[in-house]
């Protein structure tokens, strides 16, 4: 086997091994989670259930986190004119981080009729990790400010995470926790289980493939030496 062919073979094996590892290690896992909200409003207590979706994408040294409500929560006894309602929320952090981060969004772009479930616009915030690992994001408290009043809606069903994200700290650093901010202007302990096992198997498989290729090349070269 020529040197050029041997180099090409090794490159192919390395690429296959790398692909196996990447396929076995998803960067994020998102799940729409039903959240039961108990809302304290100016006119009394109300309750509502809304599926919550949280997404995260890399943005500079951090991650842009977007929280979405698929159904309206709470309501107002009077019409809320355009720009009268301002929402914000907290997201609970877990995994290699703890605490909360805040997400904010624009006021309502259209009037909301009286006694109609209030549809919350997507809320966003920036999460900047200081430690590399898996971080979970779970719906926290929703706050709605309108017409000089404040309504707070608290999850009562201990919802599970809507997002599990593999995050990378700047410089791969070791720290304790991340920093968060809302976007008014603007990935529990480390998990072990099937995903991590798959990653380990993918890495092992890549190592075996590389070792096998190296052995085949050594035998080929040894055979050529004997024939000489």
Q: Name the shape in a single word.
A: elongated
Largest sheet descriptor: 11 strands, antiparallel
Q: Mean pLDDT, rounded to whole units?
A: 74
Overall strand count: 11
Indicate the proportion of strand residues.
Answer: 35-45%
How far from one another are the termini? 14 Å
Rg over alpha carbons? 25 Å
Structure annotation, total helices: 2
Describe this structure in words.
It is elongated and about 50 Å long. With about 230 residues, the protein is α+β, with helices and mostly antiparallel strands. Helices cover about 25% and strands about 40% of the residues.
Give the topology, please.
Blueprint: H1 3-24, E1 28-30, E2 33-41, E3 44-59, E4 62-69, E5 85-95, E6 100-104, E7 123-128, E8 133-146, E9 149-155, E10 163-167, E11 179-182, H2 194-227
Antiparallel strand pairs: 1-10, 2-3, 2-9, 3-4, 4-7, 5-6, 5-8, 7-11, 8-9, 8-10
